[in-house]
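hiii, so i know i said id send this last week but things got crazy w the move. better late than never?? heres the sequnce for the chain we talked about at the cafe, plus the structure i predicted for it. fair warning i was half asleep when i ran it
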Amino acid sequence: MDYLDTNGYVRQVWYGSGGWSDQSLPSVAVSGNSLSSYVVGSSEEHIAYVDSSGYVHQVWCCGFEWSDQTLPSAVAASGSALTSYVVGSSEQHIAYFDTDGYVHQVWYGVSGWSDEGLPSAVASGNALTSYVAGSEQHITYLDTNGYPHQVWYGSSGWSDQTFPIAAAFDSGLTSFVDWSGRQHVIYFDSNRHIHEFVYSGGWSDQDITTAAQEPYIRASIDVPAADQTFWNSTQVTFSGWAVDDAYAISSVAIWIDGTYYGNASYGGSRSDVCAVYPGRPGCPNVGWSISLNTAAFPVGAHMLQITVTTIDGREASQTQSFSTQSPVTMAAIDSPQSTGVYSGAQTFQGWAVDQASPIASVAVLVDGATIGNASYGNPRPDVCSAVGNQPGCPNVGWTIPINTSNLTNGQHSFAVVVTTSGSPPRQTGGGPVFFYSDNPSPVTPNQALAPGSPKKEYVRANGSVVAVENHP
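okay and structure toks below
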């Protein structure tokens, strides 16, 4: 095993008949931390490195004597990666990056050592790997967009090729040829998953991190949102989605504050989810939902938990916090007005809203007795502007016709009882308002009085006096 010591020189630990030994090799100071080694024949060892001036060196041993040799390379990029391989019995190749980011090689053939620039794209990062497949030579690197490339040598000479695969993420590279002759290039994608790019009559890419993992359940709670508040005593629909990488979902159980509320309905269309996780079992019908009445929960903070179970028996859970609070019902009586005096036929009016539910009815009480329901649903944009866009807005006004002639003259009370349409319904009172009925007493016109009879007086509710005079 070859390595660099703290002074930047090449060392080797090796195993022989006497066990493991460590030795210093006759290198010059190394730039960067890249080494590449190969063996020619059965005993010729070679270790390539870049010296502090940027040139490729090798320390090599034939027998028992190590030597250092400067190779006729171009100036390498600072800290350049290295890769090496042997073609046939003795053709040696060492690849590196030049200062412009292109792939070079120094190689040894019948004419000795030579340097050659290869037709690569500009490389990014510091990763190189190489292999020999039959008579073909392959050197793989990353371009400036993070995509793996290879420069390879075949019957037509050297060519550059972009692999049509996922972009790598600051990736290292390694490669090999298996026993059947298939070519393999290994790299990390942008999700830090290990990928394998395999050539067997054509190139194919596989995410082997995902392939090696147990299928993964993915689930979401869309409603309620985190810490969302709902009115107490209203019907709400909680919803979300759930998918698994390999198996269909069998159930989505609903728990609130540790109490089981049944299984959600599963199978709603969620094409948006399946666009992100294509090909999952059940797509696109992977949505879940359940309708619950918040009257079942006391006012305050709560925790929703869903437990997703797949058909093969695996489970995963998600939680989301929410809260409930009591809604306010508001009711107003615009007329009759307090201490107002009314006569004849009148239309009394007002408005009513609830923060959680539409209004179901407005019952009217006069002197404590219910006389009927007001007509509800008149436009009152002024009210909705003041109290906010509550359920039923802007049609939240009520009216009721009352003939005050049917009331005795004097003071009366007027009140309303507002009932919401929630489940269960809630009731709120409005009033009472005290008003006066002021209608003339039923006196026949030109009524005759006996001579000398005293004048009769009729006192109205407001204190005025009506006199009926004697007509001869």
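btw The chain has three domains: 2-212, 217-325, 329-437. thought thatd interest u
miss u guys!!
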